[in-house]
Design goal:
Elements: E1 6-9, E2 16-17, E3 20-21, H1 25-34, E4 38-42, H2 50-59, E5 69-70, H3 72-83, E6 88-92, H4 95-103, E7 107-108, E8 117-120, H5 128-139, E9 143-146, E10 152-155, E11 158-161, H6 163-174, E12 180-181, H7 187-197, E13 204-208, H8 211-220, E14 224-228, H9 235-241, E15 247-249, E16 262-263
Parallel strand pairs: 1-4, 1-13, 4-5, 6-7, 6-8, 8-9, 9-12, 13-14, 14-15
Antiparallel strand pairs: 2-3, 10-11, 15-16
Helix pairs in contact: 3-4, 5-6
C-alpha cells in the first residue's frame, strides 16, 4: 500500500476488540511507521480521553501520542469553539466528556435553564435526574448535539445503549430533533481528521470495520477505504447497505500484504 502517505485507523473492531488486541495490529502499525507513513487513530468513543486511548494502545504494544488520537470528544471541542462561541453546555456522558470539554475551554453547566447546548454521549452513570435535565434544557431551547450516531455499543455478553439511544429519548421527550452530530462520519469529524493528517484525501487510506461510520467517513472526503472483517460488518453488509469500500481485508494484518487485498 505504498501509494498512500497517510493512514487513518478505527480502533474497536479494527485494532482491538474490547481488551484484546487483534493479531497483526502492532506489527502493521510499526511497519507503516518504518515506511515513514503518517498514522492516526480515529474513534467515536466518548468514555475515554485521548490520553486513556493512547495508554490502552501502549498496553497492546502500539506506541503513539495523544495528538495522534482523534475522539468524538476532541472533535466536539473543536465544534463548540468554531460554531458555538460562548456556549454553555450541559453534558450527558462519562467523566472523560467533562475532562475534554474543560481542556477545550468550553463552559460547562449543570443547570438546564442555563444551557445553550446539550452534548450527549454514552453515559454509564445515567439516571432519571440527568435525563430529565437534558430534556428540560432542550425544551428550553438548547441545541441537542450528538457526540456520535452509534445506537449501541457491543460488549462481550451483548450490547449496551450508546449515544443515539439517549438522543432519541431526549428528542422524544424534548419535542425537538438533534441539531448536529460531531462523530464519524460527520463533516466535522472529517475536517478535523484532514487537518491532523496534513495530506490530500486521495493520499489517505481509511481503515475500519463499520461501513456506516468508518467507510462513509472516508468516502465522504475522497479517501480510499478498506473494510476489515474483524469487527461489525461483513461482505453481506456491503451488499445490504450498498456502501462499497475500495478494499475488503480479512483483518488489519492484510494492510501490508497487498496480494491479499480484495478490490471491490
Amino acid at each position: 500500500m505504498s501509494d498512500f502517505s497517510s493512514y487513518l485507523f478505527d480502533l474497536d473492531g479494527t485494532i482491538y476488540v474490547g481488551n484484546r488486541v487483534l493479531e497483526g495490529a502492532a506489527s502493521t502499525i510499526e511497519g507503516l511507521r518504518e515506511r515513514m507513513k503518517t498514522v492516526l487513530f480515529a474513534t467515536n468513543t466518548t468514555v475515554y480521553t485521548r490520553e486513556e486511548v493512547r495508554d490502552k494502545l501502549g498496553r497492546f504494544g502500539i506506541a503513539c501520542t495523544a495528538e495522534e488520537v482523534i475522539t468524538a470528544l476532541s472533535v466536539a471541542g473543536m465544534y463548540f469553539r468554531n460554531y458555538a462561541s460562548g456556549a454553555k453546555v450541559l453534558l450527558l456522558g462519562d467523566e472523560a466528556m467533562r475532562e475534554e470539554m474543560t481542556r477545550s475551554g468550553i463552559a460547562v453547566t449543570g443547570e438546564a435553564s442555563h444551557a445553550t447546548h446539550v452534548l450527549v454521549g454514552l453515559d454509564r452513570t445515567l439516571d432519571f435526574d440527568k435525563l430529565t435535565a437534558a430534556v428540560n434544557a432542550v425544551r428550553n431551547g438548547a441545541f441537542l448535539i450528538a457526540a456520535n450516531p452509534d445506537p449501541y455499543c457491543p460488549m462481550e455478553d451483548g450490547v449496551i445503549p450508546d449515544t443515539w439511544a439517549l438522543v432519541k429519548a431526549i428528542e422524544t421527550a424534548g419535542n425537538r430533533l438533534a441539531h448536529d452530530t460531531v462523530g464519524k462520519p460527520s463533516g466535522h469529524y472529517a475536517a478535523y481528521a484532514l487537518q491532523k493528517l496534513k495530506s490530500p484525501p486521495e493520499q489517505c487510506l481509511m481503515v475500519g470495520d463499520k461501513l456506516e461510520t468508518d467507510i462513509m467517513l472516508g468516502k465522504s472526503i475522497g479517501m480510499r477505504t478498506a473494510l476489515v472483517l474483524s469487527g461489525v460488518d461483513s461482505r453481506e453488509s456491503v451488499r445490504s447497505t450498498g456502501i462499497h469500500p475500495d478494499y475488503i481485508c480479512s483483518s488489519i494484518n492484510d494492510i501490508l500484504e497487498e496480494t491479499r487485498l480484495e478490490t471491490i
